[in-house]
Amino acid sequence: MVARRDPQTVAGRPCAVAASVHLIGDRWSMLVIREVLFGNHQFSQIARNTGAPRDRLTARLRDLVEAGVLERRPVSEGARHEGYYLTEAGEDLRHVVRALLAWGNKWAVTTPPMRLTHHDHPLEPESHCSACGEKVDDADLTEEMLVPGWDMRGRLDEVVAEA
């Protein structure tokens, strides 16, 4: 079970982005998720491929297990060692990692160090609406705050005071 949080308890705007970043947003957590997605389940593999200090990695792995993003289980049937595996919530981060990889290849590195290939061509991730199948275009989106006392500009009592 994922450790969910009341969005009104995060600092600033009540938002699922803020709650998500609080849960999995630090550097080591995202690199751990990347490594597990790549099939590296043992602590030593994750440590080697993230470059995380062992004490910090231990803490992040514990946090991700407690949060319900990872689970520990034997690496193979009858094995005496346990590994780290994504839960359903962790698997849903696959799209986030792909988007970060694509963004990073375009904007963060001088030369892409890795590429994802879809069939016989480089993968270029896009967002599509699961209800209608259309490509998501920002012009077609509507933002709506559902928390009373807030709109898209911010907390209503603070927005009025600024005016």
Task: Write a structural description.
The chain has a two-stranded antiparallel ribbon with strand order 1-2. It has one domain: Winged helix-like DNA-binding domain superfamily/Winged helix DNA-binding domain (Arc Repressor Mutant, subunit A). The protein is globular. The protein is an alpha+beta fold and 163 residues long. The protein is 40% helix and 11% strand. The longest helix is centred in the middle third of the chain and has 14 residues. The model has no long low-confidence stretch (mean pLDDT 91). A hairpin with a 7-residue loop joins strand 1 and strand 2. The protein has seven helices and six strands; from the N terminus they run ααααββααββββα. Helix 2 crosses helix 3.
